[in-house]
Protein: Glycosyl hydrolase family 32
Organism: Flavobacterium hydrophilum
Amino acid sequence: TAEEKMYRPNFHFTPKKGWMNDPNGMFYANGNYHLFYQYYPDGNKWGPMHWGHAISKDLIKWEEQPIAIYPDRDKYIFSGSAAVDVNNTSGLGTGKTAPIVAIYTLHDMTKEKENKIDVEQQDIAYSNDNGFTWQKFEEGNPVIKNPGIRDFRDPKMTWDETHKQWIMVLAAQDRSQFYKSKDLKNWEYLSDFGKNIGAHGGVWECPDFFEIKVKGTNETKWVLIQSLNPGGANGGSGTQYFIGDFDGKTFTQDNNFAQKVEKEKAVWIDYGKDNYAGVTWNNVPSADGRRLFIGWMSNWDYAQDVPTNTWRSATTIAREIELVKKGNDYNLISNPVKEINKYVSKTIKGKNLKGKGKLSIPEAEKVDLTKAIISFNVKNLKEDTYTFILSNPSGESLTFGINNTENHLFLDRSKSGKTDFSEKFASKISKAALEGSQKEGAFKIILDKTSIEIFYNNGERVLTEIFFSNQPFTSLSVSSNEGIEMSNIVLNQLNIN
Ligand code: FRU
């Protein structure tokens, strides 16, 4: 159909039909990366939640699978996580392969309608065939009862190798709560974090918590990822993070990082409007050692109104998250997984550009910009605004760049095509503050039919947004007053779909 042709992403995962939101329960097992997601197969707006399922060999090309977990009438299967129970600590294994245990929030819609408080509890399900079919743990659910908190959901569990325990983080209204377990069935409350810390413009949801090596060293730190809605970096849904230490019970922020959180109100994993509820993969082979992340590429501000009908929403490109230390400051960087490079079918090197006013990057015309990776460097930047413009013959454009007077990156989709389906979609330009004025910068941009993912300075700042142009973008140009110097322009065509 026309809709499929125009808006079905070339290489970002979308279900064939129906509504999707958060990624859930991702793990790697037996050669496959598994992705589950909040799914309503019978409508294109949020509804009775199932866990949809897809698998991939390389985190790029996804194959949709039968629905993994069904709701029981009004008891919806909300977000959660899964862990490969390598040593069968749960006893749920049958001896042939390691059982995989999923934990999710069971959300009781009847209680919600009755305005009850104890609407949400944590239940588990398990798989004994490497993640393809699942049984609910009927005899033992819930594994965590509702403690009298209305918003009490999205459990994310992981093996804590340092303290030899399973740990779980879940979102409890305005804070993250930590639990521990020996067997994934009995959970003991440990502590909480976050009341009055970080961004609190909305309810906290979908946390993640893991230990990670500081890049290039053997030092480790703990990272808490914490989504919230609304109150994100540029409005609506957004995902902040914290860095610190964990003694097996309590998470404490690193001092410098805490100061940065104080100063900036929050530190975000992505400054675009469309990367929400992202969490990381469990059981990635240790020889690989990567921390792999994927987000929901939409925003509750307008997700249910975007102009696609057969399906709604996609995931972001899978990303590798790394922790870097500069002086005494820790920061997360995220970059597209390297597997995407194997889909590059053609590489065009652009001529270096130098000049004022509007300059076109002629090589962009030779690339299908609905499946491309573009990278370039800019240098000798002045106190000026550098605007990159993706445009089509209908006069629609998507612009992004560096405002080097106010020291931020920006992304503006106000003229990018269909925007009037929601007032919140394009009324504001998204911004990502930069530390001081830039002398130079490096961009990597991933383009699909309806999305742009900008990785600035090797993933120090990321901006992810969707758009709905009425025709594909075919040109790329740059505009500045003082003049720009662009080098290392590389346009990679992807052969994928
Ligand atoms: C986040 C969220 C989660 C919840 C799920 C329901 O987008 O609100 O907190 O579990 O969606 O679909």
